[in-house]
Amino acid sequence: MTRRHAGEIVRSARRAKGLTLADLGRLTGYSASQVSRLERGIVPLTDTVVLRSFAAALGLSPTAFGLLPDSNVTQCYNADTVSGDSQDDEGTEMRRRTLLAAGLSIPLAALQRVDDALAVPPRTDSAEPAQVAARLRAAQRQFDRSELADLVDALPGLLASATAVAERVDTPAGWGLVAGSYRLATDTLNKVGNKPTARLTADRAVLYAARSEDPVAKAASARALGMMLRIEGRPTLAAEVMTRGVDQLASTGLHTTAQASMLMRLLCARAYTYAWAGDRERALEGIVEAEHAAGRVPAMKPASLPFARLYHSNIYYALGDDGKALHVARDLHVGMYPTPERRGRYYTDLARSSWRVGKPEQTATALLEAIQHAPAEVRDRPSIRQIAAELVERHPRVAGVREVSKAISQPRKRVPV
């Protein structure tokens, strides 16, 4: 994949098989217009799950997209295999390439424990709702610090404890804890690339939020499910789910800051969904609405406006207008974002737009800044990791690229189980 981007490979393979855009869309769950945008590179085709679905539909080996063959993926998902200082430089380079190509850097065993816990929850000590609420807050702080590996490792216990407490006390507040736990699991698993499991946890978040009778929990779960539907290539349905969440939340009268803040977040997510669907008008109207919502409550304005405006930049990226995305981001700076996760996300968003407009120096600078604030935002997010891999492969002599390579190929400390 050093000469052609993934969309060009898809287009060549599709034409070789005599498939129309609509034919391939039916096989992969996309519309014909979405496939066209992916093929032309207007929307980058970097997600490893999506790449594998296109490979399967077109009868291609995943190696055509720079991914490992399916039979070899499992052994390379475990980051613990990429360690040791006794290898020579060539071996180190091969390990780096293998790890980057695998897509997921979280150890497979940790991800498997989450899947197992969804089928058979692990036994858990009896806990009170206040204790589970404290665990959920601690897990959210891990997310905000971008401690993704530790958070994935903690998810089975959190989900089991929250569910056990809710079943015992059977109160709306108890079910709200379960909904919040599954919503956080969705955000985390999606971020690290385990999208099929994230879709399952999103469904459960919606189910338990309904039992919570909490409008904020319902809206948060609608955002999580809509996000996963968008990623599946179903943006119209995703926008419908989010619109219902917006309407239900707005009907409360927005009497609390939490309700107003969640409305703003949901409006941002819906506008972003419209952008990925190619609906420029509704996307831009939607993000302006979100920015107005962010400015209505003085208490949340300092944090919410930067959040919405970064989404504004991201919407132009989704629309394929990287120059405009970078222009909008000029008004932002990292000091606007209070958590390492948001600061890392700010820089990775700059990196992906810079990469797509052919600016490797700016890409490397942004990735290094992201690594400084939140290494997991580069190391553990497959789409950003792929950009880093391509940067290292194509521009090894650009300033900062060696440091990027070193930072994302360092062995992860094993988390005790």
Give an overview in words:
The protein has helices at residues 6-16, 21-28, 32-39, 48-58, 70-77, 89-102, 108-119, 129-144, 148-169, 172-191, 195-212, 215-231, 235-250, 257-276, 280-296, 301-318, 322-329, 340-356, 360-373, 376-379, 382-394, 401-409. The chain has a domain at 6-101: lambda repressor-like DNA-binding domains (434 Repressor (Amino-terminal Domain)), CATH 1.10.260.40. The protein contains 22 helices and no strands. The longest helix has 22 residues, at 148-169. The two termini are 38 Å apart. The model is unreliable at 70-103 (pLDDT under 50). The chain is mainly alpha-helical.
Q: What can be said about this structure in brief?
A:
By secondary structure, the protein is mostly helical. It has 22 helices and no strands.
Form type: globular
N-to-C terminal Cα separation, in Å? 38 Å
Q: Helix count, per DSSP?
A: 22
| Major sheet description | none
CATH topology of the domain at 6-101: 434 Repressor (Amino-terminal Domain)
CATH architecture of the domain at 6-101: Orthogonal Bundle
At the first level of CATH, what is the class of the domain at 6-101? Mainly Alpha
**Beta-strand content bin:** under 5%
Strand tally is 0
How much helical structure, as a percent, in the residues? over 70%
Which helices and strands, and how do they pair?
Elements: H1 6-16, H2 21-28, H3 32-39, H4 48-58, H5 70-77, H6 89-102, H7 108-119, H8 129-144, H9 148-169, H10 172-191, H11 195-212, H12 215-231, H13 235-250, H14 257-276, H15 280-296, H16 301-318, H17 322-329, H18 340-356, H19 360-373, H20 376-379, H21 382-394, H22 401-409
